[in-house]
Amino acid sequence: MTENKTFELSNGRGGGSQLPVRSGTMGPAAIDIAGLHKDLEVFTYDPGFGATAATESRITYIDGDAGVLLYRGYPIEQLAQKSSFMEVAYLLLLGELPSQKQLEEFSGNIRYHTMINESLLRFFNAFNHNAHPMAMVSGVVASMAAFYHETMDIHNPRHREIFSHRIIAKIPTIAAAAHKHSLGQPFIYPLNKLGYAENVLNMLFAVPCEEYQVDPIAAKALDLLFVLHADHEQNASTSTVRLAGSTGANPYAAISAGVSALWGPAHGGANEAVLAMLEQIGTVENIPQYLAMAKDKSSHFRLMGFGHRVYKNFDPRATIIREMCHKVLAQLGRSDNPLLELALRLEEIALKDEYFIARKLYPNVDFYSGVIYSAIGIPRSMFTVMFAIARTVGWVAHWQEMISDPAMRIGRPRQLYTGATKREYIQVDMR
Ligand code: ACO
Predict the structure, then answer these.
(1) Which end of the chain is less enclosed by CB atoms within 10 A, N or C?
(2) Paired sense of beta strands 74-75 and 16-23, if any
């Protein structure tokens, strides 16, 4: 980060503040307002953080107007085409692409940690069979802190590394256990001869009484979806992980907070909501009626999978997934997919609509992901859990980056108070 200019702000009463302007390696510069309150006794006001950079970061870069997404400088299109989720995980966590030997060692470390403690596994019995898997996953992830307290010194780099391997390795096992619990089926243990995505599919779909072969097309598609969802700079769940982690809370608690934030339909929960919406719309003839509802400000209905805080042109991940849908469905012999047809028509109609054009609303990463999850047999309630598996890598990378920064401070926003002014307490019998 370099400081090359200052920005001068005056309060109109003779007071002024010289604020440094900080430039990163790419993207807009940021005015450093840390001295503003001391100099002028004012705060900045930015609900939703639309214009606030909360941190420096070297992990992921987005140019929302140009539809650019880079992980550690590498374009998402190249990573989607040539890389794998394990390689991307290494890249996001450690900053560089691994050599073959480094990749094998890293994947080996992840494989080594895939099993979960049997006591932790028994937690699932306490949940209702109809509990949402995200509720189970966030609870069980937070409970991991009760099992690994001897390696939770956040200031110890080796402890942080062990935590990283553990959580990335175990989150699929926890996710699959939640799914099996919902079905009332026996839990399937991880198989360390399988790759990361293969293991997810095996744990989700195998049963002890039959041979199960992971479909390589499904495994490849899932691995690619994991690559696309692995990180997205300071989104709501990552910011939640950073904020929770900034208190010095244990990392399992911070990741669990991220899982909870991801669940909301405005964020990762959108993938589940898109499929529900497509099923609700049902046929192409009904699209105008639902578009009208999405535009109606008195209705809470929004076109799920549309719009993004940062992308104002197109979401490059959505472009990749849309193409991928055609390929994967053809490979799986399911080209005739009414949900995909409906999604394509909905996109086409919405993109010609003045309301969506004026507000720069385009399909986001989750408009098409559910079509692929469904095609490979993953139930709707597990879509956001799949997102959480992938995003765990990004959360861990950001948590590591924050904790290893000597300048880390607790995250503590200020407010514009609009409540009652000071008043005297009145005894209850006098009110
Ligand atoms: N359908 C209809 N109108 C929309 C939509 C939508 N999906 N998204 C935004 N708008 C409208 C808003 O009503 C607002 O209109 P106005 O200016 O007339 O008041 C305008 O577009 C700007 O919207 P904001 O809500 O201010 O945009 P914000 O950046 O705060 O929200 C968000 C972004 C949450 C993604 C929003 O577009 C949305 O709710 N989309 C649907 C949910 C979704 O797909 N979320 C997944 C995002 S990607 C991810 O997190 C993985």
Answers:
(1) C
(2) unpaired
- pLDDT of 7 above 90: no
Residues composing the chain:
431
Q: Say yes or no to pLDDT of 14 above 90.
A: no
* pLDDT value of position 3: 64
Ligand 1 contact, 303 CB (< 6 A): yes
Mean residue pLDDT of the chain comes to: 95
Q: Which of 223, 231, 315, 366 is catalytic?
A: 366
7-16's contacts with Cβ under 8 Å and 24+ in sequence apart are 7/31, 9/36, 9/40, 11/40, 11/42, 15/39, 15/40, 16/40
Which one is predicted more confidently, 371 or 10?
A: 371
CB 126 near ligand 1, within 6 Å: no
Angle of the 338-351 helix axis to the 287-295 helix axis, nearest 10:
50
pLDDT tens-digit series, residues 340-353: 899 999 999 999 99
Residue that the structure tokens 């990573």 belong to: 79
Angle at alpha carbon of residue 342, lines to 273 and 227, rounded to 5°: 55
Task: State yes or no: is 296 an active-site residue.
Answer: no
Distance of alpha carbon 64 from alpha carbon 21, whole angstroms? 21
Q: Would you say the CB of residue 255 lies under 6 angstroms from ligand 1? A: no
Ligand 1 centroid to 76 CA: how many Å? 23
Nearest C-alpha neighbor of 137 from the set 383, 368, 304: 383
Is 155 labeled as catalytic in the residue annotation? no
Contact 389, 200 (CB under 8 A): yes
270 vs 331: CA distance, rounded Å: 26
